[in-house]
Amino acid sequence: MEKIILIKYGELTTKKDNRKFFIETLEKNIRNLLKDFKLKISKDRVRMFIETDEIENAALKLTKIFGIHGIAICHKANSNNEDILNKVLEIIPQDKKTFKIETKRADKNFPIKSMDFNNLVGGHVLRNTEYKVDVHNPEVLVNIEIRKDFTYIYTNILSGSGGYPVGVQGKGLLMLSGGIDSPVAGYLALKRGVDIDCVYFDSPPHTSLEAKNKVIELAKSLNEYSGNIRLFVIPFTELQQAIYKNCPNDYMITIMRRMMYRICEKMAKKHKCKILINGESIGQVASQTLSSMVCINEVTNMPVVRPVACLDKLEIIEIAKKIGTYETSILPFEDCCTIFVPKHPVINPNISKAKIYEESFEFESLIEKCVQNAEIITNFEKEKFTDLL
Asked: How confident is the model over 166-189, as a mean pLDDT?
């Protein structure tokens, strides 16, 4: 096969003793997300090589896999002067004017040092083309990696998503609403190597089927970076109505979020998640003031990670657009957190008051019912969604 994909690892190269585990996890993720491709993968501590008949399509898919810094479609040549020189002339674009050669001599037994080989190849290009050398701002950068088996030559590199391979940090449970923030939080958690499941609170008839399908579509988008996501749909209507009936209007959102955290903790432990993740951004709404976070967080001992906590809305929107969730998130279907928002929610809730209000109804059995009756969605490719757009 003349062409091959070369993978440059991302942040995992900073690892030492556990680098092998990170690389093996990356390979597993690649095989999972490219399961429809016929692949042959080889790897070492600094590079991974992928052979496939659908090389361009596979390379584009690889841009969404965390743990990868760069993706290059390479041309293979035997590691001798003649073959390398001929291959460079064969692949160098015909419509450019300036070039630069960069050689990486991974095989230290190769008899010519990198700088000398740059000069050798550069001279060959100058003699046989109209190109001129520009070492500062070349139109074409020819990369040559000389290795023991073959030499790999490429002129373009796709940027990878960086971060750690998904799964190296264990699993977290993402509280996924239909808004802009929580999908971005999920994306950022995935980038740090956290495999995620998602939980959505469904409250029909107060929330619509379109709202649920919107969240399924968001989970599907995140699954393009993971391939392992499960979405737990929690039937929240009965518990939400009990809150609405028994709690003061200004504390409804606070109590509701406390119930959600209790449910999420049970779901997380049931499905072996180490942390809870959500899209809370400090001060954005009443339930996200520091006082509210303290009051709401009091019901769980699990670590709660808030990846977008210190980002402003414009920064979050920019990431949402980049990862392809923004257009879905802004569809006008409300979730259960927005349906019952009071005009004047408390922004500095008191934990003692919240506990007193919760004592006015029996919520433990309602929470247990939510957990036991959760719907699990796993195969997003086969799910049928309503026409959201």
From this structure: 96
The answer, yes or no, to whether the previous bond of 205 is cis (omega within 30 of 0) is yes
Query: Given the structure tokens 């349906």, which residue do they identify?
Result: 339
Check if the beta carbon of residue 146 is closer than 8 Å to that of residue 115: no
Over the stretch 68-114, which tens digit does the pLDDT of each residue have? 999 999 999 999 999 999 999 999 998 999 999 999 999 999 999 99
Q: What percent of the chain has pLDDT over 90?
A: 86
What value does the mean pLDDT take over residues 228-251?
95
Please tell me the distance from the alpha carbon of residue 104 to that of residue 147, in angstroms, as a whole number. Answer: 9
Domain boundaries, the chain: 3-162, 171-377
- In the block, tokens 């999908």 appear at 183
The encoded tokens of residue 360 equal 């006015």
Cα dist from 309 to 264, 285, 316, whole Å: 19, 12, 10
| pTM, full prediction | 0.91
The yes-or-no verdict on residue 335 having pLDDT over 80 is no
Question: Which strands, in side-by-side order, build the sheet including 195-202?
Answer: 304-305, 275-277, 171-175, 195-202, 231-235, 375-377
| pLDDT higher than 60, residue 1 | no
Which of these, 178, 175, 244, 212, lies nearest to 377 by C-alpha position? 212
| Domain 3-162 matches domain 171-377 at the CATH topology level | no
How high is the pLDDT of residue 389? 36
Report in angstroms the alpha-carbon separations of 269 from 171, 190, 194, 196: 11, 19, 16, 13
**Assigned CATH for 171-377:** 3.40.50.620
DSSP for residue 383? P
pLDDT score, position 385: 43
Question: Is domain 3-162 given the CATH code 3.30.2130.30 in the classification?
Answer: yes
Residue 58's nearest CA partner among 21, 4, 14, 8 is 4
Q: Are 354 and 299 in contact (CB under 8 A)?
A: no
Strands (E), the chain: 3-9, 40-43, 47-51, 68-77, 98-105, 132-133, 140-146, 151-154, 158-162, 171-175, 195-202, 231-235, 275-277, 304-305, 375-377
